[in-house]
Specification:
Length: 449
Amino acid sequence: MNPKARNQPVPHRIPREQHTISRKNISKAALRVLYRLNEAGYNAYLVGGAVRDLLLGGHPKDFDVATSATPDEVKKLFRNCRLIGRRFRLAHVVYGNEIIEVATFRGTSEEQGEGDRHIVDGRILRDNVWGTIEEDALRRDFRVNAMYYDISDFSVRDYVGGIQDLKDRVLRLIGDPATRYREDPVRMLRAARLAAKLDFRIDPEAAAPFAELGPLLSSVASARLFDESLKMFLTGHGFKSFRMLEQCGLLKFMFPATMRALMRGDKALRSLIEHGLENTDTRVVDGKSVTPAFLFAVLLWGEVRDLAHTWATHGKDAGEAWSRAAAHVIAEQCQRVAIPRRFIITMEEIWLLQPRFEQIQRKKVFRLLAHPRFRAAFDFLLLRAAESTAIGELGQWWGHAQQLPHETLAASLPLYHAGSTGDLDSARAAAPHKRKRRRKPADGKSGAS
């Protein structure tokens, strides 16, 4: 017997009547790809997170296909196909706004597989060795992600015990955890993200190497970590992902400035971050827009604020202190997570507008109200309410000011106020109030004699 065949897993086949996956919950585009590949004589299966989520009763948005066809063979079958990637060669079949990712079965042995693999210090830099479906299952990360839906007979194939892990609600890695994390350190982040998303626990053996191997995340491309950040924090389970990153000891490798600020015991900062993430999760669930700029402004606020206050205390101009603090924190963060420039500009504006909320003068108030980033900066001010009573009352003042007609607000504000450099008494003194209506006598006549 071929020694390679002896080591391959034996599939556990779950027939249609014993699982909950229905073609009604699979996108038409994915079904087209599966049927076309099968009709052309190739094996093709729905695989990964879509199968996992369908078995859990969810409604996945992304559908991946694994097939015996090579990328070039896939491209010949689909005119609407483009090949991408050098590290992992993939085919993207495009139907309107939907992209079906098609991957050739990955092999475990370069000797008998077709293609090439490049490994440095245990890390897979390129992996384009083709193999069998059994080998492909062993190459996947978590057992719950290594199940295949067979469109030919509507069964589910489980090669590594994924069904049992779904029942146990646990994430277990396929193979030795330390080896798998060295191959791709992002798997550690994926473990935290999936545990948060699925409300699963991470198997102790899978979590054990985090402390030792967490530093490997510094070798991951910063652009890739930006994408991972969006998956963690902008898909409806950001609050749980943040908590899980902290629990796993991985937050400091992604957001060192955030971790430093939290370690100073700042309860108000934790409140700001957690409420910001909870609000973002709610917006995602409600189908409202969210922006990475606000997310990163929330996560990095503590370090920016503390640096700005420190430099201002040591004699720097307040405006310069805030600008330098923002630039310093962003430069450090971008070494870990590559934040695009368009988001950085918005982050800086949100931060630099915060001290301007304390300046209650007529011209400055109206100038701030007209600023294109006022709404985002005001929402950020409301998140800061736990910092102090003064900040909370400032938020209330600005919330009320926005509701007043222009003329009413202008009449209530001084052209200049001596305490307008951040003193809350200034806000109280200039606070707009609605005029009380005089109560009429019972006989309907005015009270004037």
